[in-house]
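Q: Sequence in, structure out?
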Amino acid sequence: MRHFFYCLLAFGSLAFVCVAQAAETERVSVQPAPSWIVNVSPPASRSSDGALEIRLLDIQTRVDAEGLHQYFHQLVRILTPEGLAIAGNFGVAWQPGISEAAVHTVEVRRSGAVTNALGDGSGFQVIRREADLEKLQLNGVISAILPIQDLRVGDEVETAWTMTEHNPVLGGQAETRQSLAQGTNYGRLFMRFSWPDGRGLRTRIGSGFPKAISFKNESDQGFVIDRTDFVVPPLPDGAPARFLFGNAIELSTFENWRAVAESMRPLYETASRVAPASPIHAEIRRIAALSPKPDVRASAALRLVQGEVRYFARTDGLGGYKPETADAVWAGRVGDCKGKAVLLLALLHGLGIDADAALVSSGGGDGIDASLPALLQFNHVIVRASIGGKTYWLDGTRLGDRDVSLITVPPFKWALPVGPNTDALVRLVRTEPGTPQIEWRLDLDARAGIDKPAIAAGTAIFRGDDAEEWRVALAVMTVANREQMLRNTWSARHSFVKVEQVGSRYDDKTGDLQLDMTGTAEMDWNNKGDQVYNNYEADRATLGNILNVKRPEALQAVAPVYVAPRFVATHQTILLPDGGRGFRLSGVPINTVIGGVHYSRTQSLVGERFTMSTTTHSGEAELSYAEAAAADKATDELVKKRLFIELPPQMASRPGEIRQIEPPAVGVRLTGRARLAEMIAGTISDQDYPADAIRKNQQGVAGVNFDIGVDGHVTACRIAISSGFTALDDTSCALIRERFLFRPALGPKGQPRAETRFQRIRWKLPEDAAPIRSYDVTLRYTVGIEGVGRDCAITGTPPPPSITPEQCAKASQGSAILGADGNPVEAKIVEHHTRTVERMAPPAAGTVPALPVVPVPVPPASSGNPH
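A: Exactly. Output:
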């Protein structure tokens, strides 16, 4: 979540949420359709399976001396109740002072009858709609909503309206961008663009549109796109942002980027001039007295704008284009990106520092250089300052910048300075950080034993923009909310850690923010439960980015795959019990580059200390689809390279052992002479495996509850969790009742008492007891002239356990095949492997197949700390 405030300039599209009733004088204009349009009819209706059938989308755009006119005409058929919700309200929106709307048609067609739902326009509800108040932006947009009465499934709704823009700030220039949503199906798509013959106008048509046909008559020229049954093509997933323009058409009368800059330059030059009696002069003198160094002065000026002027954007009327004056911003201590920029310019100019305003796109700006020159490409304003021959990009809407020398080049890609001598866009090359932007550390002290909670300490360091986001977020919170957020952060990252204390620190000199945590951790050594591995997986040791390259075949080569910049590190230290004797590592170091991302992992185990560090480091990059697919596959393999600390033999659980995983007497509090029951005898081993279960290849874990009487014998046994097989469940309880004997539990006064326990009994087929099965398998592979096999494949059902894909590949590696002339030839080899098993009568009841058996005793339960 970004906490920087980006100013909304009125260069792009607007979205709305109702917040207030508009003035009574603001009414919808109902007028006939303009004379410059051409009439367009829809095609015949066709079957559709969505909520709506869009029979016609007709958009006609004209640029003339009066401004930019856009005519929208649409006919939809409602197919489902969900379609009623979409098409049941007709709405238009405009921004007073810049645009105005006129409605021509709102009609409902049903069974050949046409109903005029527009009338005189009195049915419209005119409202102010402010979608961006939570972003501290006020755009002043007026919208009008007309609920369409008595609308039913099967009806058709036809609407038409015109939007006219006449922005005086543009000085007669016009611009627009029209986009279509991918995957939308139109019965007929008609788009017409026209302008007076001889009027300088540039257009850019995205690759997703049908071919445009140019026209020219006595007074006008332009082009038309007309296609029936048109589906807007999908955009390639994971592509750089510029490829989103594939479904957009741009129009601009600006000749070049110089013309765009010149349209804004007078506004910023005027707004940044301060009056002779302005209090800003006092601030300039105060900053100048701090230091003669320009960078120190610039840093102080930036801190003043960021810290003393509240952000709020007024983009209503001409406010989206025209900045307030520096004096007005300072007097009210409030401004948007434009206002903060002109105030910063006033301070810097007064301090003798060369600076000008620069237009950028907060969305990253990818593709602006290939787009038409237009103001709509930008929605944010920053300041370009030149100090000591070095360029600095300063953003007054940020918070907390302390030293301009620490400010990195922002990720906007392109900027358009509006100062003198601007001829073109300026490319912004992102500053590559020298240290990780985020570092996480988790230290665990497990020297008390693997069955005891470890002492946990965590540290996280955020740098650059990440640090500023955290600083701002924490600064606006109450103490209680701040602590809860920090606790949640650590708990979400390490769910096995019980967080006890948290804190945060901000370094005013470096701009780094540090989070701290202490607590305890329940380390899972995988030595309990159904699956036993006797190891601990190092935390956050797995590396590998997942690249989104799942595109349809037709789109695979359309665009590259975008790789976002990332530089993060993870560190861990674990102090092991018993001086670390017998512990060992399982896992290899990593140092590889995949898809332009450098992955690194180092680890060591010296004495009782285990250490690990990982980094994932990538600059901003683009890969071809083939490269991305190969990288994605390679990272799948990288993810498998896990890192474990393995328990020494003396601490490891043994297979076949009955392990008690729940406390044997839940809710019992031992006081006085009380004690839990202690096991005296009772073993279960492979020799007890039910013969029928072996023949049927049955294995699983049975969870049982059993009662221990006052004499220490098991009096009852019940299956709490079935293994899935009756033979295993019945045998589990039968053996417990027959063999288990305990020293009885005692009450507080030393009297014998009954006790109930829960245990899991794991029935795992001994490897030599796996059932013998029939199979009929064929291996096919090719041996080249050099004797190296390839393309080995296994067919048949089922493959024998001795033939795996790896062994199939090995089988194909042999000597070269010689032809009749004695020379090596390439040959295809086919091998058949067949085995038939005849079933015999089962053995007599009570007998057990001869299996190698190693009895495993169950150790007595410890009375104070049962396991």
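The two ends are 45 Å apart (CA to CA).
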